[in-house]
Structure formats: C-alpha cells, structure tokens
Fold each of these.
Amino acid sequence: MTGRAVSAAVLLVIGAGLALLAVLVHYGFMAMYGGVTDTAFEGFTWGLTSGPSGLALGLVVVVALIGFMLSTRRWMRLTAVAIPVLMLIGMFAVTPAALGQKMEKQFVSAPQCVTEGTDEPMASADRESQQVFDSIEHIGHFKGGGGMSGVAGCTRWFVLPEDVDVLQHYRAALPAAGWEVVEDDGRHLRAQRDGRAFDVTPCPGGGVVWAGSDDDRSYGQGRPELAGTEICPHDL
C-alpha cells in the first residue's frame, strides 16, 4: 500500500507539472495565433480544439486518472480530479491576456504603409498613400505590415473587436476631413480629394482600406497579377 501511495503521489506531481506547462503553452499559442476579436470563451474553446491545448488536456487527464486509480487516500483522489479542472480554469483565465498581448504586438491603431528600405518608385507611392491614411480618422486595429503595397496603392486590413458599422463611420469621417464621397453602394465606399482616392470595404470581423491615385482602381482590381485575389482575407 505504501508503494502504491508513493506511485500515486508521484503521478499527481507529474500531472500538476504538466498542467502548469499546458497553461503556459496555451498562453503562448493564443498570443501568437488567437483571434483578437474573439471573446475569452471563444478563444479558450478555439485553443482547445485547434491548438496543442487539447492534446495537453488529454495527457493530463490520463495521468490524473491513473493517479486517481492508484490513490489510497481521499485527498489524493480529490487532487487527481482537481488537476485537470484547475488546468482548464487556468487556460480560460490567461486567454484574455494572451489575446491582449497579440493585439498590442501585432496590431496598430492606424494603417501604416511606409517601410524602411523600400526602393523607388514604390517608396514615393507609399508615402503618398500614407498621407491619405493620415488625413482620415480610422477605427479598428490594423495589422502591422499586413496588406499589399505598390505603385497602384496601399491596402491594409483591420479588425474590430466590437460590432461597429464601418461604412457609417467613414461616411461621417471622410467629409469631416475634406474628402468627397464618390461611391457608396452599401458594400464599399470610395472618396477623392486632390487627386488621391480612399476606399473602405467591410469584412467579417473588420474591414480593408485602400489609398492611392484617383486614376487607379481600388485594391489593384483589374491588374492581371492580382486576378482572383480576394479583398477580404479569410483570417483577419
């Protein structure tokens, strides 16, 4: 009985260590790949089903179950049951912090087109697009460096954690900044000012903005190299 109790205690210690490690792995996974628009529960559920967290949970449950079967005392059995439960609580508790860290590190509050070391003429086009973006009040969180840039304009995607009418925001923000809305069909909005153009299109969970010359088509549409390219990405 003494040997059995020792084996159970060792398994419980191992299970607790694995559970703590699993919580840390879940945090790192969510901070890298989690959806910043998800609620804590949505992110927690996605992490369990799509990442290593589910496999870790299964391993901890197996170790805790063996420890439970070998346990000779009530407190050991209660500990065996508590380990996976506390592990799940820990994962749920760290999910909002992990998503917040991703938001802080990978997203910015305004679209950024200008990057160091860009050759001409793209560098000049990026600066002109940046001037367009800087003249408008934006909403959402923009992926740092995420999007397409070129002489035909700059495209940047953004996410919205809350339910906001994207087009309605820009319907007010653009005229207030001196822009004239020239297209508004309920699916996208385009405005022009001083030879420059701005376009915004809502997407599930966010949207996409474009800035370029008023002679160019938004998002590079119509260019052969971009044929078939979707304006809204699958994973904002």
Amino acid sequence: MESLKKYKTHFNQEQFISLNADSDFGNLNLNYSQIVIRIECVNSQIIDLYHKFYIEKHKRETEGFAMYNLDESYLNIMVTEQIFYWLRKTTDEIISLISLCTDFKSNGKYPKKIKVSSIGEFLKLKTPFIEVIEENKDLLKLLNEISNTFKHSFINPQIMAYKGSEYPVVFAYNLHYNDLKNEAKFIQIELKKFLNDYDKFLLEIKNYIEENFKYN
C-alpha cells in the first residue's frame, strides 16, 4: 500500500501534510506521521507473508508436498491477524484525526472529547459522518468484522485447516458474542483485493486531509 508514501522511501517534505502542531490534543503532525509509519510496517508484514506463501506454493508444485507444515501455516494466520489488527488501529486513528479536525474547522475550537474515535463508533452513528468515511463504509465494516472475529470469536480456530491455494486468502469464522443462538458467519476474501481497496481508501483520506486541514 503506497498511497501515503512509496515503500522504503524516506518520509520527506513532499509527502508530509502539515497539521496543527499545537492543538489541545497535542501535535497532530505526530499522529499523522504515526499513521504513515505504521502502514510502512504493515507493508513489511504483507511482503513477508506473500513471500512465504509463494515459496510454499512452489514447493508443493515442484516437489509434490501435499501436507502443510502446521507451525508455518499457523504463523501465516498470526501474521494475517496482525495485519488486520494494525489496519484496524490505523483506521481508528484516521477517524479520530478527521473527527477532531472537522470539529475545530466548524467551531474554531477543539472539543473536550473526540466525538467519533473508532470504526465501531462510526458504524453506530445514526446521522451521516464525514463523506470520505461514509463512502468507504462497506470496507470499514468488513475490516471491523474481521478484526473483531480474530479477537473475540471462540470458533475462529476452526479456520486453521483453510489455506489459499493460488494466492493468500483471509478466512474468519465469526460467532457473534460467542452465543450459539446467533448464526455463525464464515468470511472468505482475497487478501490482495482487500489491500487494494484499503490503499484507495488511504489515498482518499490523504487527499481529504490535505484539502481540508492543511495547517499554514
């Protein structure tokens, strides 16, 4: 994902968006910088995951290995969980930053409390939120559901037997509130498609922040 900056390039002035360094909530440049740096770290995890996947795939095709190494397969699952954890945390920070800056732009002062500070809070809103966030609601809802499933669903370990055959696939098995009264939901998405969609979201966010909150 390179919408915020090219992978492994220095975070220079051309990529930097100057925000208020003296807000009531601290230096907002540090918040934005952390978002950019975290995506860089996530990219390293993604590259490592794909590298290992295609090495294993090549071995299966050339050496006839039909069985997966359970330890390696579980490590891939853990890396996938970490990727979604960090994307979830990054999105929460993006929503918080935009909510805070929007209130300041509208009222000329910062609120005592950030009104919307997470995907979960955004999804519970009964009134429309910021347009750029609303336009990506389905993507954020999926991210929220997958990350919550990894974190909370007791039945999610049932996916350990599942693995993409041609490319990395995200599997999750959600039982809401771990209550058997609820219907279990099996989630299966191609990781590349999700990451491409999320990268487009990041580009829209970057443009929105620059157009609306750039601090001179």
Amino acid sequence: MTWSFQSRTQDRIKWLAAERDINANPDMVARTAIERNDVVVPVAQDRIKWLAAERDINANPDMVARTAIERNDVVVPVAQDRIKWLAAKRDINANPDMVAGTAIERNDVTDRLAQDTIKERAAKRDINANMVARTAIERNGVTDRFAQNRIMQHAASVEAFSNAIRGLGERFRQEGGRGR
C-alpha cells in the first residue's frame, strides 16, 4: 500500500491530536483518544497507548504497571517492559522504605536488565540516605558484580563529598565564620 504525502500528513495530524488529548486529559484512555481522532495507523495507535500508560504511571503514585497497561490496552512487549520499569523506578524514587524486590514484584518487572537497574537505583538511593554500601547492596538484592562495584564507587563519592563539606564547615568555624 502506498500512501500519498497528503494521507501521511493527515495520519500524522491525527496522531498528534490524539497525543495532545492524552496529555491534556488525565482521565482519557488511549482507546478514546484513538477513536476520537480517527487514528488508523497501527504504529501510531501503539505509540498513543504507550504514551497514555506512561502518563498514568507518572500521574498516579498508587498505580501499578499492570493497571496502566490494561487500562490503555498496551500490547507491544517492549512498551509493556518500559512501563513496568518506569513504574518500579517511580516506586523506588517515591518511597525511601521500598526495597527493589518489592518494586519489581509490585510492577511485574520480568526483564532481567530492568530488574538490575532498579536494584542499583534503590541501593544508590539508600546510600544517599546514609546507608553503608554493603547493607544497601544486600537489602536490594544486587547480585551483578559490575553494579556492586558502581554502588561502592557511588558510596565512596558520597562519603568523600560529605567529608569535604564537613571539612569546610570546620574551617569556617575555626575562622570564626569569616570569609577570606
């Protein structure tokens, strides 16, 4: 099937209008935006579904990936994996008490690389909250050696920065709060 320039332009306008609707209305599901704007290109429909599910994840901290995927009929596996990863990442960032395993299970993250990045992110978050590297690694189930090394390097950087700040504070106190 060949499309003319005009029909491709019309399809693009429909796609953009549906994306606009998704971004403007947090209650609108992908299906409604697709039908409302007569989006017929399958790739555009898939992208709108993906966008709507990501919007739902970002807008609602209680929503799990499965709900956003089902609500917007996301069928592309790569898009589903991305939404699951985003939801787990959001959970880790929003809840300092949540361990990586809980975020992974809660959002059904099955992709191994995505699981590893969530575990590393959670461990680094814990280190930023003054947790010892080994404890953060164990608490979040980080088994990848390279990730463990990056986490320990992160801990060393956080500690070095903290020591530098303490040193400046001490110097400031010793000088009686005066600048040079």
